[in-house]
Amino acid sequence: MATAAKPTALPVTADDVRAARMAIGDEVVRTPCLKSKTLSQISGAEVWLKFENLQFTAAFKERGALNKLLTLDEDAKKRGVVAMSAGNHAQGVAYNAARLGIPATIVMPKPTPIVKVQQTESHGATVILHGDKLEEAAAHAHELAAKHGLTFVHPFDDPLVIAGQGTIALEMLEDVPQLDTLIVPIGGGGLISGMAVAAKSVNPDMEIVGVQAELYPSMYAKLRNETAVCDGDSLAEGIAVKYPGDLTFEIVKELVDDVLLVGERDLEHAVALLLSIEKTVVEGAGAAGLAALLAHPSRFRGRKVGLVLCGGNIDTRLLANVLLRDLARDGRIARLRIRLKDRPGQLFGVARIFDQQQVNIIEIYHQRVFTNLPAKGLVTDIECETRDRAHLERLIEALRGAGYEVKPVELA
Questions:
Q1: Domain ends where: 127, 152, 177?
Q2: Most buried one in 76, 90, 134, 239, CB count within 10 A?
Q3: Is residue 103 a part of any domain in this protein?
Q4: Cα 189 from Cα 24, distance rounded (Å)
Q5: Facing residues of 311 across strands?
Q6: What is the DSSP letter of 125?
Q7: Model pTM?
Q8: Alpha helix locations (H) across 179-296?
Q9: pLDDT tens for residues 202-251?
């Protein structure tokens, strides 16, 4: 996909990224880039993780936002800035604007997770919820900018923002110079654009691979001159962008070697895996790189791969659901629907088998009325906890061997 790099023809150069690094200095966290032994064993690649979820606002967006804000003159600072964002860019702008004494207004889509709204407001920004999609929020933000003379801080399609995001790649390649592949999430394309410019300037043979959610394959489709249907509630709402940037598209077209798509199950599994293995919380977009690595193992086997955990702002209730669903898919939590006769001792007999198989019962649900069974029949759903899929299968076999009709209730 990528052609020979033409740095001078692109809207952002390696010098721009290096200048951004000098400008933002120590005002952002130089996050660690650490090898994951377990993920390396699982994937067959040498996996290094860049923990951008350890930034103060828990996302990489601080870098580009700060680089942009530092260029404003005194008059622009007094009037203030406006931005549109599903969350992480909002916090990056709000936090840095507050530190620099710049009034900030942030327009966010109505479905934005409440944790991101609250965190943005906590930095002193005025938050306006408008529209169901990022594009509707963007249109309203532009209206406010024109009406009140505010400086619009674009989340991705701005050379200064792109350059700021590229500082991540400079840090990664200083810490781990042997990396030969970077897997980077793509929403509007600001992160991968900046990183590609920086990485290719250090190592022209570096392979840059982008990742998008299957529900929002906007950059993927545009590179192929195809029309994409972008819609749905993706776990990776941070990269759920219908239209990639014009500037970012030009950079991606020149410097990015491939773009892969990942499904919602892949994203959920990656979020759960990072918490269970690395003990780190990431949002769906932040886990997209790992999701791609695990969904396409042969593509990266034997490579030295850098993944950017670009954000950690995930609603706690949503995270709990993701973790429980992942346990269910692994067979460690299950719901079994068992048909019983309406007579004494039936439930006791079932519970005894659970005890014999050393399976923990979490919940029991009886259903006598809303069922198509005869009046003397009933259905009970038992939610239980097992060691693994094999343990669950042994339980089901034992129940069926005792004469019970059993059917697992599967996840969608």
A1: 152
A2: 90
A3: yes
A4: 21
A5: 59
A6: P
A7: 0.89
A8: 190-202, 218-223, 246-255, 264-278, 288-295
A9: 999 999 999 999 999 999 999 999 998 999 989 998 898 889 999 999 99
